[in-house]
Amino acid sequence: MQGVRKNNYTKSLAILVIVIVLFFLPQYGSDYAISIGVLIFLYISLGQMWNLLGGYSGLVSLGQQIFVGIGGYTAALVTEVWHQSIAVSLVVAAGVSLVFAFIISFPIFKMRGVYFTIGTWIVSEALLVFFRNWKFVNYDAGYNITIAYRIPMSQIYHGALVIGIGSVVLVYLILRSRMGLALMSMRDNEGAAEVRGVRLYRTKLYCFVISSVYTAITGVVLYLNIAYIKPGAAFGIDWTVCMVFIVVIGGLGTIEGPIIGAVVYVILRQYLYSFPGISMVILGAVAVAIILLMPKGIMGAIHKKFGVEVFSVRRRIDERLEDGS
Amino acid sequence: MSELLRVEDLSIAFGNNQVLKGLSFEVNENEVLGIIGPNGAGKTVLLNILTGILKPDSGRIIYQGEDIAKTKIVERTYMGIGRTFQVPRSFEGMSVYENVMIGGVCGRQMTEKEAGAGADKILAQINMADKRDLLAGTLGLLDRKRLEIGVALASKPRLLLIDEAAGGLTESEVVSIIDIVRGAKEQGVTIIWIEHVLQTMIEGTDRTLCVAEGRNVICGNPRDVMDSPEVHAVYLGTEEDYADEGAGADNDIAKTGTAQALPPQDKTLLEISGLNVLHGDLQAIHDVSMRIERGHIVSIIGANGAGKSTLLNTVMGIHNPAGGTIVFEGDDITGKRTSAIAEKGLAMTPEGSRVFADMTVTENLLMGAYLPAAKKAKTEQLEKVFEMFPVLKEKSEQLASFLSGGQRQMLSIARAIMMNPKVVICDEISLGLAPVVIQDIYAKLKELNEQGLTFILVEQEIKRSLRHSDYSYVMVKGRIVLEGKSSELSRSDVSDAYFGINRFA
Amino acid sequence: MLETLPQALVTGVLLGGLYAIIGIGMSLIFGIMKLTNIAHGDIMILSTFLTMFITQNLTGNPIIGLLLTIVIMMFFAVGIQKFLINKVITKGAEPALLVTFGLSIIISNALFLAFGANTQTIQSPLVSMNLIRTENVSVSMMYMVSFLVAVAVIVVLTLVMNKTSFGRAIRAASSDTVMSELLGVNTKRMYVFAMMLTVVTASIAGMLVGMTFPFYPTTGTQYLIIAFGVVVIGGMGSLPGTLVGGIILGLAQLVGANFIGPTYQQLIGFIVLLVILAIRPQGLLSKAVRK
After folding, report:
1. What's CA C163's distance to the chain center, in Å?
2. Counting Cβ atoms within 10 Å, is residue C257 exposed (0-12), middle (13-18) or buried (19+)?
3. Which CATH architecture fits C5-279?
4. Rounded CA gap, A225 and A205, in Å?
5. Looking at the predicted structure, is the pLDDT value of residue B256 above 60?
6. pLDDT of residue C1 exceeding 70
7. What is the DSSP string of A260-309?
8. CA nearest A194 in B: which residue?
9. Which residues on chain B are in Cβ contact (under 8 Å) with C187?
């Protein structure tokens, strides 16, 4: 047992070191590296939240861009039009997305399986059309988010870092909680879970709301990074493409998956930047190939071959020893 | 002893099939009630009704004094009704420990700590403490069955419903299951145990109930029930059932075996050698070898879970064997695609007739003539089939969903005949049918056999199988334990083998 | 606004025909393979682009363009069914859905690469013609032709399904895969045929769409939603239902736009669809009762 305990301490220490190193990146890294870092952390967050829904609860949503858009527009309206701080926009984004998630959950959760999937997509397309025609958000012209120019890049970077790491921590905590047990059982066998006493509807709803709110918060920082917003891009399917890609490539239903997926995605996008248009085709082709060949993603393949798990949510004997029980 | 559960006049039908017909029984506190009955008698349906997955058409379910017919599934779990599933439904990606925790955390709203402590106790009870951290997906069959009971126990049920926990296990494994159930009883749990492995009734239950044709046939002390004429009739068939059958003709086949003249050359139509089939981790078929001769009627007899359907499905390419060969007319058809095997001349009527419900009778029959060889003779075959089964001609333009169980079975057979096959494999065609209807069908089969068609019949009922076939195989737990010319096998030998009494294992 | 209602009704019904033929392919695939093909809209637009390209550069005649497109698309169909979908369909609903999603991304971006973001149309003399022209109502020739073609396609397909041995086999395969195999039906090959049929109907729809509305590489998405709407309203897997679904959707859009404003045409369609999905997802015409 001693050996196992030591292993865990080493693992935690290593992670802590990595986080600290990353935190201080703005001091020694190039601008390019910092901007890549921002993207990676924000995409990790998007991926973790999509994974929570699609990988653990079995809710494949093609409409999470709704919340990215809500987050982005909140940032734009709060800072540009009402001249409040970014902190305020984060709070407002959380609030608005919470309410919206609850409201659409009523019709959306009546839809099962593929109906749910397409239903989420329809809601996002409807929102897109709505925003394009809404005076309140400046129709199709959108906004320049000028506050983004007035804050240093390192602030955005640190914001992204916190959100990215926060998403991993959040998912980890959820999965280690009682809701996590329920989620994992639903992922493995919904019918049996119900008979064992799992409240399916309630669990899925909580999951959906948490995922959506956090996605909205991520959306705020995403749009601070981009610095201008229009309906077409904010509510575009591209965000979901990115989320699906990250999770599928990295490994559906694992915590490490979205991290790996985000890194792969950002690097691939940067590399293919010089070939516009082809990049998405290749991205799509890679995703399809991975689904066919490695259905559990990169992490799944690693886990199968080496039995390695970085963020294990298993409740094991060694961990209980650490509690002193 | 006070009553914990009372079921009154429970009835439910699926389409035209009346599965439960006014079933009534009670269960007393802290007793183990065993339920036995032939396949199709409605036992799993009963469990599904008790847990709330199905709603009965009529009848009452009184649990702890209240009628719970309208209570939701989740509520019943909170009220203390727990169950295991026939095919264990563990959460494959979670560890044994976590699986058991779910029962406590969600079934009884415990905190993680409480559920964890409870889980440890249960793991000790089911003897799996050493397998705590293994993923449920990697477990073998016995462990899965034990885990299944453990998860159910974790929600601290007052009433535990066990669905066939002993199926597919060896003698000693069954003993360990019986021990676990006894242990649960000692803790005060009331248990209803549905089983096919009949010895568990005697050793594991306080009272035994036999359900057949949707009704309570007999209930009482396990040994008395097992020895009763009612139970024997249910499983083995009585003399009265066959009183009307043309006395001379059928007896001739069974006794003298002269009704068919075997063609002199190339007698073997289908040869199975050393077949081994796995169902996940469970070995469903062990080293089975059979030879089916042209023009014969061969019967395969065995209780539920003996592996009969698995064997047939493997022959037809629905399962792939782990080892062994299947040769038909000299061609190796092992592991080939089902449609290709059908093309070679093998037809099967699977269990439950499986007619295309949204198509008319005629369309169903025409589907039988899909393959090019059969298509040419389509019209003549259709006429022939209508002559044989006039009721199908009557209903030819009706949707198949409007046919009764017996008529569907006839449609299924007729459809197979339309294929102009060389051999017809019938998987339990008498299931759920009235004796008169069964007689009719068997008479038609005999007619066809006299015209040269080979048959492989799989049945649970011993007497009928022996009576109507030339050669018989008896299967128990995936092995052939007895075979021989039907006329030379005695009913007592076969029933001993069938009930798993160990003269042959 | 009431004066324009008759026009809205007429256009709505006729448009419904076009919508129906867009949705037919999706209904086929769902009914037979139980798969929702997210790439359906993009496959249709792909055929539209092909027809346009062939018509503009090879022949002058869009009909010949359509025929050549159909031939090419059939090869495409065999390819994706055999190498993609048949491989993933046994692995569960999620992977299959995601593969079609990936396919959708590939197709729309490949089109963008090949043709750029410009809006395109397929030229046809029918577009500016009017069949009837009265004071209150004018019936566009193009819309009428689309409607008639849609009805014809649906009738032909329904006949094939109900009267031919092939159609019967497909119905059997979608009803009970194992049983049909036992009767000698090679279900995987049936799926390929089904995909080919789908692609043919999608190509026909694609040409009509290309003549009626402007299109560009990402138009596929909005037609996917229309196809899904049509199929859901009319009942998944019901061929005549697609026509009813199309008409209902078309009417909802046009009548709604008539009273609320033309910019909201799409939005109203979405909302109607969401309502129906929430209340009766098995479709208005379906006899199935949801448990």
Report:
1. 23
2. buried
3. Orthogonal Bundle (1.10)
4. 30
5. no
6. no
7. HHHHHHHHHHHHHTTSTTHHHHHHHHHHHHHHHH-TTHHHHHHHHHH---
8. B74
9. 339
Strand order in the sheet with B331-332: B282-293, B268-279, B323-328, B331-332
Instruction: Collect all residues of chain C within an 8 Å Cβ-Cβ radius of residue B366.
Output: 165, 168
CATH 3.40.190.10 assigned to B245-254+266-345+422-498: no
Task: Label residues A135-158 b or e (16+ Cβ within 10 Å = b).
Answer: eebbeeebbebebbeeeeeeebbb
Burial of A112 (0-12, 13-18, 19+ CB in 10 A): exposed
Check residue A81 and report its DSSP letter: I
The pLDDT value recorded for residue B456 is 94
What pTM value is reported for the model?
0.78
> Tokens 């031919």 correspond to what residue?
C164
Superfamily of chain region B3-236: P-loop containing nucleotide triphosphate hydrolases (3.40.50.300)
Mean pLDDT (chain C, rounded): 85
CA gap A118, A294 in Å, rounded: 25
Q: Domain segments of chain C: what residues? A: 5-279
From CA A136, how far away is CA A141, in angstroms rounded? 11
Chain A contact for C98 (CB, 8 A cutoff): yes
- Domains in chain B: boundaries: 3-236, 245-254+266-345+422-498
Distance from CA of B145 to the nearest CA of A (A): 14
B406 vs B309: CA distance, rounded Å: 20
Report how far residue A136's alpha carbon sits from residue A73's, in angstroms, rounded to the nearest whole number: 11
Strand-pair partners of A229: A143
User: For the CA atoms of chain B, what is the radius of gyration?
Assistant: 24
Q: Helices C93-115 and C220-234 sit at what angle, rounded to 10 degrees? A: 140
More confident of the two residues A26 and C76: C76
Residues facing residue B486 across a β-bridge: none
The answer to whether B317 touches B488, Cβ cutoff 8 Å, is no
DSSP string of B219-244? Answer: EE-HHHHHHSHHHHHHHH--SGGGTT
- How far lies B379's CA from each of B382, B397, B413, C170, in Å? 5, 16, 17, 21
Of the ranges B73-82, B399-408, C71-80, C109-118, the best mean pLDDT one = C71-80
- Inspect the interface and report whether the beta carbons of C183 and B370 lie closer than 8 Å: yes
Contact C179 B359 (CB under 8 A): no
Residue B116 pLDDT class (50, 70, 90 cuts): confident
Euclidean distance between CA atoms B137 and C206, whole angstroms: 47
- Contact (Cβ atoms closer than 8 angstroms) between residue B222 and residue B229: no
Contacts of B232 (CB under 8 A, 6+ apart): none
pLDDT in tens, A174-215: 988 888 888 888 878 877 888 777 888 888 899 999 999 999
Q: What digits encode the pLDDT tens for the residues C147-182? A: 999 999 999 999 999 889 999 999 999 888 899 999
Select from A183, A211, A213 the least CA-distant residue to A199. Answer: A183
Q: What 8-state DSSP symbol labels residue B79?
A: T
Residue B462: name the closest of B169, B174, B241, B198 by CA: B241
Q: Is the pLDDT of residue C273 over 90?
A: no
Query: CA B425, CA B297: separation in Å to the nearest integer?
Result: 10
The number of angstroms, rounded, from the C-alpha of C159 to the middle of its chain's C-alpha atoms is 19
Q: Do B370 and C184 touch (CB under 8 A)?
A: yes
**Which one, of C255, C205, C267, C265, lies nearest residue C11 by Cα?**
C255
* pLDDT per residue as tens digits for the range A241-253: 889 889 988 888 7
How many whole angstroms separate alpha carbon B349 and alpha carbon B354?
8
Give ipTM to 2 decimals: 0.82
Cβ of A181: how many Cβ atoms within 10 Å? 26
Structure tokens, B209: 């109930």
Nearest Cβ partner for B358 among C175, C178, C181: C175
